Amino acid sequence: MIADYRNSHPQILPKPYFLSLEVEAGGFGAGTIVQFQMRLLGQTQNFRSLITEPEPGRLLVETDIKSGIATSFHLASLGDNQHTRLTISTELKSRNAVEGFIAKMVLQKVYVQELELIARYAEAKARLEESRQAEGPHIAIT
């Protein structure tokens, strides 16, 4: 879901902060290049990121091509094969302590909203899949 930048990923971005997301190359996982706009502290910023998967299915990294700032999505199974912990983190390269503190506070707020959207989206997809399985196969005869 997180690696699908054409379909799922746009659904999990908090709209007050993420203004756009465009897939430039690829679209799923490693090798994808995306362009997006974010509104932070009243200013709109443009980003262009390369997606890598150092650990496919477990670690996805979006690295801004211009600044080198990386945001990671790390998935860890909680051992019961039904629950997964997702951690979103950004490696900041701030110019000073005040800027770093403010960026950290803003990004924490963004990521809390993003994690909530991810949980809701995953639950909705699971409910849809359960209802499809409960209905059984559909056969059309023409």
Would you write up a description of this structure?
This protein has 142 residues and is an alpha+beta fold. It is 27% helix and 36% strand. The protein has one helix at 97-135; strands at 18-25, 33-40, 43-55, 59-64, 70-77, 84-91. It has a six-stranded antiparallel beta sheet with strand order 1-2-3-4-5-6. The chain is globular and about 60 Å long. The model has no long low-confidence stretch (mean pLDDT 89).
**What is the CATH C level class, in words?**
Alpha Beta
Annotation field: number of helices: 1
Provide the structure class.
alpha+beta
How much strand? 35-45%
Q: In terms of topology, how is this protein built?
A:
Blueprint: E1 18-25, E2 33-40, E3 43-55, E4 59-64, E5 70-77, E6 84-91, H1 97-135
Antiparallel strand pairs: 1-2, 2-3, 3-4, 4-5, 5-6
Précis, in short:
By secondary structure, the chain is α+β, with helices and mostly antiparallel strands. 27% of the residues lie in helices and 36% in strands.
